[in-house]
Amino acid sequence: xxxxxxxxxxxLCLSRxxxxxxxxxxxxxxxxxxxxxxxxxxGLIYRHCKxxxxxxxxxxxxxxxxxVWLKSExxxxxxxxxx
Length: 83
Prior knowledge:
The chain is an alpha+beta fold. It has one domain (16-82). Helix content is 23%, strand content 36%. It has helices spanning 30-39, 74-82; strands at 3-7, 10-14, 19-20, 27-28, 44-48, 55-60, 66-70. Strands 5-6-7 form a three-stranded antiparallel β-sheet, covered by helices on one side. A hairpin with a 5-residue loop joins strand 6 and strand 7. The radius of gyration is 15 Å and the shape is globular. The protein starts with a strand and ends with a helix. The model has no long low-confidence stretch (mean pLDDT 86).
């Protein structure tokens, strides 16, 4: 969860940049995904978990917090949106 702090002449926003794999709980930090995510044209990447090798979807939300899901479950959400 991000936190914003008022400072002189602006606002400082802090966000969490590490996450746990939703399947195995393996911890991933910025070094595991940030370079690819910065280069992404649409702000979304897919990457294998370094623990269980599941394919993960990785992006940031509007508060700059990292959001992660299993790609194998992505079709379930697409069906809900399209129905």
